[in-house]
Amino acid sequence: MIKRFEIRKDGIGFCYEESWINLTVTDEGIIVAEEISYEVPIGSQLSKIK
């Protein structure tokens, strides 16, 4: 089930089964990609910066 749908000037994006999928149109063809993101706890990042 698609939860969110977004139209962009170079293609479309949508959320499908908890994954964000991008379809981008280029001169070469169509690129289909899954966007991957990572959650990082703020406490860990701050301790590394100090």
Order of helices and strands: EEEEH
Q: Roughly how many Å apart are the termini?
A: 44 Å
Number of helices: 1
Helicity, as a percent range: 10-25%
Strand order of the largest sheet: 1-2-3-4
Structural class by helix and strand composition: alpha+beta
Largest β sheet strand count, sense and barrel closure: 4 strands, antiparallel
Radius of gyration: 16 Å
Report the principal-axis shape. Answer: globular
What does this structure look like?
The chain is globular. It is of the alpha+beta class and 50 residues long. A hairpin with a 2-residue loop joins β2 and β3. The protein has a four-stranded antiparallel sheet, with no helix packed on it. It has one helix and four strands, in the order ββββα. The protein is 16% helix and 52% strand. The chain starts with a strand and ends with a helix.
TL;DR?
By secondary structure, the protein is an alpha+beta fold. Helices cover 16% and strands 52% of the residues.
Task: Detail the topology: elements first, then pairings.
Layout: E1 2-8, E2 11-16, E3 19-25, E4 30-35, H1 42-49
Antiparallel strand pairs: 1-2, 2-3, 3-4
